[in-house]
Records
---
Amino acid sequence: MTAKAKGHTLDVEIYVKHDDRWTRRKPFRIHVAREDIDPYLSYRLISPSYVAYHDLTICQRNLTNFDEQVVYGNRLNMGARNAHCINCHSFQGHNPSRMQFHVREAFGGTVIACDGKVTKVNLKTDSLISAGVYPAWHPQERLIAYSVNQTGQTFHTLDLQKVEVQDMRSDLILYDIDRNEVTRIPGRPEEMEVFPTWSPDGKYLYYASARFVRKDSSENLEEETIRRYKEIRYDLYRRRFDPARRTVGPAELVVDASAIGKSATRPRISPDGRYLMSTMGAYGVFHIWHKDADLYLTDLHTQKTRPMTEINSGEAESGCAWSSNGRWLVFGSRRNDGNYTRPFIAYIGPDGRGRKPFELPQEIPDKHRNFMRSYNIPEFMNGPVDISPQAFAAVIRETEAKPARLAR
Amino acid sequence: MEIDFSQPYRPQSHDAANTSKSAILERGLPWLYDVVFPVLLGGCLYFYEKETLFRIQELNLFLPGKQFYQSLAAYPGGTLQWAACFFTQFFYYPAAGAAWLVVFWILSCLLLRSAFRLSGARGALTLLLPSALLAGIVQMGYFIYYIQLQGYYFTASLGILTALAAVWVFSRLNNRKSYAGTVWLAVWPAVGYPLFGAYALAASIYMIALCWRMPGTNRKFRVANTIAGTLLVVGVPLLTCQFGYTQTSIHAVYTAALPCFNSAGEIFTRYRIPYYILLATPLIAAVTHGLHITTKRGITIALHLILWAAVGVGLKKTWYVDGNFRSELRMTRAIENEDWEKVPEIFWETNGEPTRLMVMQKNLALFRLGRAGDEMFRYREGDARPNAPFRVRLTQVGGKALYYHYGQENYCYRWCMEDGVTYGWKTEYLKYMAKTSIVNGDHRVARKYLGMLARTLFHKEWAEKYSRYLDHPEAVRESREFAPILSLMPEKDELASDQSVIETYLLRSFAHGNSDNVLHQEQNLIAALQMKDIGLFWPRFFKYAALHPNGHMPRHYQEAAYLYGHLEQQVDISRMPFDAEVKESYRRFMAFTQQCAGMTEAQMAEAFRPEFGQTFYYFYFLVNGQQTY
């Protein structure tokens, strides 16, 4: 039916039976886009807890039906004495055969699946703040950019946002899969760079960065960062990248969010390279907990940035991803209840205007009203991940993370 | 004697014509063991553990519908847990829940007796089944807060019942047509394991053992059954977890639906003993099938008596009895019912040193009754360690209610969320998440939790009651329950961390606060008092006096002012209108101090308690180093 209706509209009339009486609802129309959506969506299911985790799964959902499969679940390797967190799944473009995710604590490492081969590596070297955190696959090369972060969290005593997740320090690195080699991307020490993403042609590395200058170096860094948490705002930058020589150019400011009293994070470039979608809130880096966080669109041709008012809500919007044809956007939104993130999908026209977003449909229509987990990092894929959860589990359990070399 | 397995087993019908006393006794024993004994055990459970059973259902959640079922069925044995969660709800009326258990125990005993043809000395084996099942429940103590297996309190009863039912079917089929038994043995693990987990595997093992002992089964079938059964018991879990279940560890495949008794990464194996007995009993019944242990009546009676004694001693040793634990449960319930008068009464009734939770619950109740300033130090102080072999934390035990009532709604919500993730979602957590969200004005998410609770069997009314507050902030402000909580909420937002130590966090937050709200301000003063911080005390004392210009200054505040005035002499107390009794008790306290020269602090604490144990002076000088958790 929807295939036949491509480019046209479906008229919908709903009749509801209540106590043996039928009520006719106001009819409405659904416009069926000409452009297909990618067939699969991946996400991590996680309760919006603060420290505890128990049951985490990276899942893939077939968007042509209601089938949901586990790509990897942490309980596959969970014992009474060992448990691990999994996070930050990421793909090269929309290609499910090239993916990575992190395993923290027991059996820790970064799991990289590349063309059927699964490896586990340790990206932490002595001079880095941490192992890789937020990833971005280069669109063509076997290369992943990461931020490395020293992250902490504190709790609001009154604010409904409840938790504040902050970086104390962060940098960017590049990881060459074939060479198993990490390269630091040079940056100024007072800059906190995070959330790398590539332009579709792979010639620019975009990222968010906040300038945090210590006022009192005698104070503990963590305490000062917590005390001044509302002052920390991120702008969006980019650096030219030469894939052949693997060199990175100087930083160029792309979106001066702090100039308008905003903090911009999680940039994502549309596949045609024209638009940059980011999440902006009044301050900070972890907007999934910020009720004022909204999606903003920057037209990279005109350099104009505007809030996506047509798809935003009064609750947190965050973590968006473009479909491979650039006509669909999936993003996390807490609009239902302010606490649980659900994936919403919106059509984005060639003019950059969004259409009314809809929640990821479920076989049990009211599933999300009773569902105690959030959807984290939704990503479109052009097919399913065909490595089984058990195969991932075996690699995670049975292999030591191979230490990466730091390039000199 | 060859027994016809094709006929139902009715032990009481044996030798029905014999009317001698011993024959009547023999016919009556199965009834005693299979019906009367489980009923007695169920009665004891209800009589002694009413409060625990009620708390257990608060720490359970069952939601009707496919979604909840699927969330459990994603793991082997999920259906068993789903059914167990369903029945656990009935502990809302402890007698109803206990009655269900008794029904399952009786059925299990009957099936055990029938499937394994228990009679004579072996007949006493049915004692072990309900005893082990009861022991599994009454041994728990503080583990009721930490057990991760959903529906724990019914999984064993339902699991063993299912296993025995499967064996019973096998015994009937195998006797009629051996190949039918073999087919059942082959089908059962594949069907049973996903539904009942390890209990299905146990049933297969019982069937294998039984087929070797059953008369009339030829050796070919016995060998075939053993090979097929063993391969399936080993193979089915591995295969289903390799190709089906995507969230089950390879290390957990053979123990699916069995409890782990893990706390903070440590496994407490002593809690497994009832499970070893439970699972071993049918195996013993199987391998002893057909054995005539003895024909001598005296020896048979002796064996029965030995088993009775063993069961009695075992249950006595396993049954968790702790006065503080029970008082905590009762006080928790009284707080939930806002029966504030009852909380200090229960505290008073408890003998021995109280736990910090009890002290905090009592202080909260006195504060809500407006009697804290006059009475909070009249009760015995203490920091008795919760009686458990593992570390018990307030965050899991009672702490959520404390946070909720002291206006730390975000922290209450936070710990509900953390514990929901770690230990599974429970009615209690949803209730506090709903209530904190109502107080916080976060009504949309409150609606979610209330909606879930409204779908439960016994908490609909509770959900309806609190749903009335949704989108009615004026009703929240005027509510008898919420208004005091709103007064105690922090007046400005801060970023902080409780480091998982509730008491210290609450004391610090309040002691360093300086509210103009009458209720909140008194809590500022109380916390300063409890922290024995003289610098914090004076400004809060004067503010209290200013906020209550015509009221009588509560006794403990007077005692503190009188003591601090004498100790530091930085505040002129000479014109303060102290009660004569306050001055007199201070004088006597100091005079008695002279008499106790040379005593250790512990000796002094004992010596002072009878006369001064109800004063702030005693608290200040002689209650030190209290360990909170």
---
Amino acid sequence: MRAVFEARRPSARLLLQILVTAMVIPYLFPLVVMVQGSLAGEGWGNYRAVFEVGTIGTFFKSSVIISVSTIIIVYVLTMLAAFGFSKLRVRRKEVYFWMILAALTLPEVVLLTPLFATTLALGVYDTYWAVVLPLAALQIPFTVLIARRFVDGVPDALFDAARIDGASTFTSFRYIIIPMTRPIAAAIVVLTLIGSWNAYLLPLVLIQDPAQQTVTLLPQFFVSQFSNDQTKVLASAVITAIPEIVAYLCLQGLFERGLSAGAIK
Amino acid sequence: MLGSSRIWKRRPLGFAAAIMSGALVLAGCAGGGAPAGGAAQNADQGSADSGEITWWGWTPDAAPAEAYIKAFNKAYPNIKVTFKKLTIDGYDAAIRPALASSVGPDVFDVAPGAANGSVDIYGVNAIDLKPAVEKALGADWESKLAPIGVSSLKNGDKLAALSVGSVFSGTVWINKDLFDKYNLQPPTNYDEWKKVCATFKANGVGCFVQGAAQTAFNEDTLQAISNNVQPGVWEKALKKEVPWTDPTIVKALTLWKGLFDDGIMQEGALGTQQYPDANNGFMSGKYAMVMMGSWYMQYSTVEGMTAAISGAGVADPKPFTQLPIAFPDIAGTGNVGSLYGDADFGLAVNQKSKNIAAATTFATWLGTSAEGQQAVADILNDIPALVSAQPNWDTVKLVNPEAQQPALEKLIADAGKSDEPRLATVVADLQTAIGVASTTVAAGEATPEEAAATLQDTASKIK
Amino acid sequence: MVGILYYCIGETGYLSTLDWDGTSPTPTSVGLQNYQDILVDPIFWQAIWHTVIFFLVTFTAQTAIGFVFAALLHSKVKLATVYKVIVFTPVVIAPATMAPVFRQMFAADGQLNWFLDHVGLGFLSQPWLAQSSTAMPVIMFITVWNFTGLTFVLYYAAMGQIDPEVLEAARTDGASNLRTLVSIVWPGVRSTTVALAMLSVIGALKTFDIPYLVTIGGPNYATEFLGTYIYRISIPSAHVGYGAALSIMLLVLALLGAIAVAARSNRKDGESGV
């Protein structure tokens, strides 16, 4: 990957460094206040208290299972849908596209009551599926919108060339779309991870089994009717956020490598 | 909407969606899951002293719930109760579909008014508990229970839930240690209050803190001031017996404005919320006074106070002596000490439960038995629903028993006598209008007369 | 799934013709009265006005900052990972957790005023959230803080799709950094910008959690949005019919906004599709 900005002289480099640092300060400031808050009062004791809740391992396991399943479903369906909307000739595809997009305007909660009934009818109530399927369905309009724009950017010439070489639609998908869309795939995975890891309402309502509860329920141990231990709530938030940040960093690395490999022309 | 303590509780974990929830569940697909009335109800279902039941609620906290269940199991060892605590914001979203299904909880929390877990909405899913209470307390059961808990938890003629306890407001809590440090006496009138505040300010301590952005708490303060000007007018205005333009209300708004202008209210009060902002300000010793109700009793204990201070972000917390005082006589009329309250929450039994008998046993035990109500009283959270229950002061460890015990005993006794409603049963539109009056006056965007006229105008349109 | 969605929309449409409190067994049908009321409802128009301003400011800020960040971090900047984490982290933190932190920061005795006092800007210090005039900018700041990471991640990905050879060619022709950025990189990520614009329109109309959690729409409706208004009307006030009518308005406006963005982008580059 070639640098977007090229700074050859040291003074220019320094200038860039200063610019980016200045821009990041307003973003850093609230985070510092937050971490400070999580260490106020009992200091690291707040973090210890969160771990002493005892169910944190179970919570993490459930959240990982839910997130990974959701990511796989979203990724596969998004890529297929984006490919279809962008490159295939499907009758009235714009109508379908807008129907999916309209779903973006609805908050998940509108669906809660019908979902409850649906999951009971399907017999998946109180299983991970009850959460994974709606989460995926709610994420897909957003990711399809993003991915479709990205796939639009893949030159049609590539497909024409492939077709002339006798490649099937699936082959084009497998050998052109998948490698070319790695950067956006990483972004989609990250966004889906955020959506599913932070899901609160769906697991709360659709999963009863305490052994399948998710990390987003952690702070509720410290918010009560008559008090609100902000320090431990913040500590819970820090603990919950760390896996997402680590995952983001790993994916960054992955797709930066993917970029050099993906630049097949 | 806002029951007592429930006001701030709707915010804390308001995960985005959770709150939006309510809105669109109602606005959106509520029709699909509307509770099916008239589902088969069978009071004989299950055994009354054995079985497994689940209980859903946004309150109490895990620890008191555990204490209640433990005490319950001493009397009924064969009923296993599992408590599932939901957040305030998630409660309606979760309970509505659950009650409509066949896998809902056996026992669930409800509250008076239109807030979360409204008895008006979910009461239709509950069995009538009157027969069970009659059996437990006898034909004169109503005389043994606090009236505010019974009347506010009815759904039509049905006693849909049993009140566990009530909360009252009208008191100001003070940090006695700070008052002692600067040789101050709790203020009893406006001049004293101003002087106290000036002294605190000169020493870099905040005086009175109010989360005026959370307007339901402004109503507490306004009701106190109004009762100070002329007792009973506020309640009459709520009942539409006098207009909101009554001179008493206008005077109350004028005095309220004075709190902001005369340096009693903290700077930036309109951007502060009562919870956690004002609460943490008081607990961390930054402010010496705060307008809170009977639910603050629990911080009089060493344990409760220590946890609260630590929760406010203070390292190495040292509990201080907090005391309830009457709202100062700022109108100069001598009418002080008014208290007004609501039932905090009640337990309802799901009519679709497969263990109705055991569920009824639990609800009745917690709401009406001496042991159950003793457990409630000892938590110092709610004023018990059973009139005869009193905290066991031998086991409750106060920070400063000498000063605090008499004050708390008096508060509990006075609250038990009060039948003035607070705000849980006031319709939401009116609450909003009162909130607007309080903030526009405080910000100087309307005179007390104008604000009262606007308030009356809105109130007259409410059905 | 789509079936359930459309069932919900239909249901909401039906509810919007009622005068109903959500529990009474006998809702009254009022036809289009709710919609007529909306058109003369000052709070509705105030909320719409707030939403428009809010969208313009937050979208512009997020796009500009996210784009520049992505461009800078695609360059050889030291400690790039640290910067990425800082910009990305706000996205994963629930607004509910941060609301009290922000109220504390912007309080009269909060960290911001403390900072201003210490850098000689003490005259600027004020109770930010307690005044109608400053509450809205604070809400906007928090929103930008919260969502720039998203913009950044997407732009960062999109810039990865730009052909390095084109950049190289431009450089060889002697184009400056700024020139490259404006005439190659910015058009190169246009599809992402359009997608983000559509999301922002919808997002602005649905804005709820940050104003609700931080200021409860106050002081005095200064930070009331369509989302907070619908909530207040439907839940605490239990005017289900009116709330449903507002929800339908939201749906229509959101779709119109998204279509407008799409149409504009189509006209501009003349390609088919959205």
---
Amino acid sequence: MAIDSQVVARVAHLARLQVDDGESEALSERLNEILGMVDQLQQADVSDVEPLAHPLEVSQPLRDDRVTEPDVRDKVLPIAPASEEGCFLVPRVIE
Amino acid sequence: MHDKTLTELRAGLQAKDFSARELTEHFLGRIQARDGELNSFVTVTGEQALAQADAADQAIAAGDQRLLTGLPIAHKDIFCTEGVRTSCGSRMLDNFIAPYTATVVDNMAREGAIMLGKTNMDEFAMGSSNETSFYGPVRNPWDTERVPGGSSGGAAACLAARLAPGATGTDTGGSIRQPAALNGVTGLKPTYGRVSRWGMIAFASSLDQAGPLGLSAADCALMLQAMAGHDDKDSTCLNEPVDDYLGALEQNLDGLRIGVPEEFFPDNLDGAIADNARDAMRELEKQGAKLVKVSLPSIKLSVPAYYVIAPAEASSNLSRFDGVRFGYRCEAPKDLEDLYKRSRSEGFGAEVKRRILVGTYALSAGYYDAYYKRAQQVRRLIRDDFARAFKEVDVLMGPTSPETAFKLGAKADDPVNMYMADVFTIAVNLAGLPALSMPSGFVDGLPAGTQVIGNYFQEGRILNVAHRYQMATDWHQRIPGAFQ
């Protein structure tokens, strides 16, 4: 499956990245090289092989449902790009 | 003092040959005088380091010397450190003052470690040469025209140049072991889940693991002893008792079965690199180990499987960088979408964007089965190959990297060629196994490393193998001429 500028634009939008027209062609080329290498995976016989997500196949431990995290508002708001009255500030979403 | 290992420095502090303040001042002085040539630190925390050193001296005077009391450590800039910039090598986090401290850093501080500063790295740990850092490349102290490897390149370079006696790193596909090899130092990636990932900025969560880089296997054992252990804050951190790594170092190697995977010695491998690793194994044979040929047929697919799984996880992990809550925000966004897109495009560098795009593509509708699911099936085949091998042998060995340090810029516009730098290290991450790289000599004047891979939770065994090797060799004691 070859990647062209149109595919790059679609995937970039999904990833919320902006790709300028000037870089689109070189980027498609690099991505095709990477996917070409990745296509070696098609050689593998994976019939009846279960996907492996965690190498040790352990289950998630359960813990008591207690409040453990303190309120960190005073720590996280000062490092936000913009905040007001205890909230993160973004451009207007609803007109 | 800077030619000494952590183990020796620890004894020196105990004997009061020097104080923690003198030791810390010495390394801070070396960083100030020499790091301009290497760029191995992003941030130096001199003031805090001296305050920690004074506290360490008081503790030692009071008879409370712990595992790392008074020992200066350089932390990779991927570990969050409260009140100190944590950049992850990215413009995205250039202004990020972490509001909390990573468990690894906390665990080491609890044992008395002093933080010298934060080391340079490939952006978001994505790279094998340290050239993707927003702060510029790190240079290799053995030849400053060459790369230090990556992504923990700053950690390995500052150790090799003796600007710090110990360092932390992270390893997703070889990011501790490959730079360790290229700089002539020892680096250990523990079993997945042995060390907490809490506060370690995520790249590929099912592969990421923190570990130590040091001047010897004994130093790595000392640091790992402090780093490892269960952490409630990381649900993938395993609740298994931590072994006595220091106690395991001296065991003799009689009857040790070393598996030699033929796939680690492919026909196209540089003969000098192959000979270097074979010489290391021969040294261990002299100490009673037996070499056994083994085969791991599926690991030839480890690089392709990795370059689906790691970008897929990265594309998800890095979606948190949206310009809203922390990190970089673009100027004058016209609406929310513009805010997201421009903040991310201006904040991330080229390699990070490439990997996000590959990951997003691999996970997108219609391609999931062909890429992500298949890569995870191959991941099982790879893990099963290792499991079969470990029924026959105790450890596996081969070269850490197919080449020594390459020239800066040599692979800059050739990502696939760059990815092959990790061809011998990546399979270990996919399988979640522990592995280390130890210095095993020089090829054309540049350090070469040999990898020792163990079965799950066998960190003690592979540290033991490396320690015994280092008792019989002096490669790990070599210092780059310009940094004596």
